[in-house]
Amino acid sequence: MQLTPTDSERRLQEEIRQFLAVELADAIALPSTLVERIEVLRGWQARCHRAGYVGRAWPREFGGGGEEIWCQGFSEPEAGSDLASLRTRAVEHDDHFVLSGQKTWVSWGQFARWCGVLARTEDTTPNHRGISMLIVDMRSPGVELRPMTQITGHAEFCELFLDDVVVPKENLLAERGDGWKIAMHTLGHERGTAALPRQVKLRTWLDRAVRAAAERTVDGEALIDDPEAQVALARALIGIEVLRHHAYRTVGEFLNGGAVGPQSSSVKLLMAEAEQRLAATALDLLGPTLQHGAPEEVAENDFWYETYLYSRAATVYGGTQQIQRNIIADRVLGLPRE
Ligand SMILES: Cc1cc2nc3c(=O)[nH]c(=O)nc-3n(C[C@H](O)[C@H](O)[C@H](O)COP(=O)(O)OP(=O)(O)OC[C@H]3O[C@@H](n4cnc5c(N)ncnc54)[C@H](O)[C@@H]3O)c2cc1C
Fold it and tell me: What is the domain extent for residue 320?
């Protein structure tokens, strides 16, 4: 594994730093409402695309530019951890499928143009073999979305009801029965290679917590001067650094032709733990000052409340902590089943 960038990677690094220095200044402060946030993020994505930083490794003809949002319709009310038991059904007709069922926790569903829906096309044993992946146009008749508000106060995900939705056959991804394979590949990236951008985000949050702790005081003492606070921040930093190295390893293996398989579950565990430790540390550290309500501190305080509350979901989305441990025990370590 090579941990130092090559000359061309260094040049790209420098180019991106210059781009960020110019472009990021007004993109960093996100508005408080989700709808406004989506608009800002769409604009940011468009700027990155124009600069050539979106889909960089894709063939030119798939480079896009319309910035569409897609979402993932996997989970159902009775099929989360046990995803293979899903009941949404797609019945094949001449040139289309008819899709019926219910999905839940669909992130960004209400903003999305397309949804990758896992649906049962065969009754098989084991049941994961009869699942296919259909790309559903969210504007199709029979699609109903009900946003659900999270503990953060934002309705970031939604329920998705599919009532005899007609999906053209050309929207079947790969072959009938390939849905499970595609879903596992997608989840492998969500649990593994996604750690690369995540560790950058966590590091910026840590730096932000350190900055706030240096600026804020209690009884004339800067919060950062407390030795216990320094140890807690150091622990949070170690979690992020460990994640960074695992992210490099995972992405490195993938770029060298390796599969993103069950090992990604260990990265997901580290990713969730690093995020929760950092968010809890920041809340604990800044706690005595969070109620001050000085106008210039409100936005910063809200950021930390939201970051802490959202971090609770890190051990659930993409497969729960318990499920990642089961995968590691079963498919990586080959431990006997109980
Ligand atoms: C913020 C967020 C965003 C999400 N976005 C999406 C999305 O875009 N698309 C989508 O399809 N889904 C999404 N999900 C759903 C997510 O994948 C599921 O919540 C997750 O897989 C758990 O399923 P569940 O909620 O049904 O919990 P359950 O499966 O009911 O689990 C409940 C509890 O039982 C434990 N448990 C269950 N089975 C076992 C077992 N065999 N061994 C040990 N413990 C077990 C679980 O660990 C958990 O603690 C999202 C979830 C969150 C929180």
Answer: 192-332
